[in-house]
Design goal:
six-stranded mixed beta sheet; binds magnesium ion; 11 helices; four-stranded antiparallel beta sheet; Rossmann fold; binds adenosine-5'-triphosphate; 2 domains; 14 strands; alpha/beta; 34% helix; disordered C terminus
Length: 331
């Protein structure tokens, strides 16, 4: 009997140093992802998210440490893991001369479905992801966002326990993003799937994640559900946005203040926010008061990180394992 909080992925002291790179992409990372639910990996560009996913999906070998998926070792047991997972890789691309219908059906047939079974599952998904009208159009003629939806469809259509989606909603319009969110939530709730995703959209992470981890330079900085991560990592619970009528110096006396685009943002307590509000009223300037978001926590935690490890040369990694990329499922 599977316990409620049984781990589906366990990484222990995981290290990945790419060839010719002195800086570890994954640097002693220990992380447990529980079965069922949506787990999101967050981190700046170059933090190690894709590297983590590629090790978990047995496309890349770790340098040291261990990673287990379904309790199986990614190095010793890759084939048994691959049968039970599906992946949407970062920057995947559908095959140009196939249409959306073909892609989704192919994804299923590669896993042993008959043409009829594949068609039966393809049609409803085309509708769900708003691909119905372009189902027969070659993917080379589709927009970037529509191509991205094909890649997502190819993964979620597979009847697997564990799915990995590396920045799945990149390039999707706000309506498309929400459709994908709804479908991921449905798969989690109705089919009990475990979904591991990465995103740079903090609102997406906040809306979707049961649990998340913020990683930086290959190790975990914060982990928990979005509420816990916010509570543990930013002292003040309230932020005040001011666009005019106050100087940075004035606002800094109320709490930590940052410049956010055209706004000055003060992190502070509810009481001090009320104080600023009274002063703003007196000066007749508008302000906006809201709870801190995951975005604030992210900037606070990793704002000073680097996007590209300095010593790391942009080299091609020799393929340690030849695996299908570009959105194709693995068998
Ligand atoms: N094939 C490779 N060869 C050498 N270094 C690599 C290779 N792939 C990634 N790296 C390096 O490993 C580190 C982590 O990269 P990774 O792609 O895992 O980051 P990421 O968190 O997915 O970033 P992004 O948000 O930009 O997708 C970076 O410093 C990157 O330059
Ligand atoms: Mg990445």
């Amino acid at each position: 009997m599977r316990g409620l909080s049984e781990s589906i992925i366990e990484a222990q002291d995981l290290v990945k140093i790419y060839k010719k790179s002195k800086v570890p992409a994954i640097d002693g990372l220990t992380l447990r992802i529980k079965r069922g639910g949506i787990f999101t990996l967050l981190g700046r560009n170059g933090a190690g998210k894709t590297t983590f996913l590629r090790i978990a999906t047995t496309q890349l070998l770790p340098t040291s440490g261990t990673m287990k998926v379904f309790g199986l070792d990614v190095v010793k047991d890759p084939k048994r893991i691959r049968r039970r997972i599906a992946i949407t890789p970062q920057e995947g691309r559908p095959l140009f001369t196939l249409n959306a219908r073909d892609h989704i059906a192919l994804s299923l047939m590669m896993r042993g479905a008959t043409r009829e079974e594949a068609n039966a599952k393809t049609e409803p998904l085309l509708k769900t992801l708003d691909l119905e009208n372009v189902g027969k159009v070659h993917s080379e003629e589709l927009s970037g966002g529509l191509r991205q939806r094909i890649l997502i469809a190819m993964t979620i259509v597979c009847d697997v326990e564990l799915m990995f989606l590396d920045e799945p909603t990149i390039g999707l319009d706000p309506v498309g993003r929400r459709k994908v969110w709804d479908e991921l939530i449905r798969l989690k709730n109705e089919e009990g799937r475990t979904i591991v995703l990465t995103t740079h959209y903090m609102d997406e992470a906040e809306s979707l994640s049961d649990d998340l981890a913020i990683i930086d330079r290959g190790h975990v900085l914060a982990k928990g559900n979005p509420r816990e991560v916010k509570e543990r990592n930013v002292g003040p619970k309230t932020r005040v946005d001011v666009s005019q009528g106050f100087t940075l110096e004035e606002l800094s006396s109320y709490g930590r203040t940052i410049k956010a685009g055209n706004l000055l943002r003060v992190f502070t307590s509810d009481e001090v926010a009320s104080e600023i509000s009274r002063e703003a009223l007196r000066r007749k300037v508008p302000i906006s008061i809201s709870p801190v978001t995951l975005d604030d926590v992210f900037v606070e935690l990793v704002g000073s990180g680097i996007e590209q490890a300095e010593e790391s040369e942009p080299v091609e990694e020799p393929k340690e394992r030849e695996e299908p990329q570009r959105g194709m499922v693995m068998k």
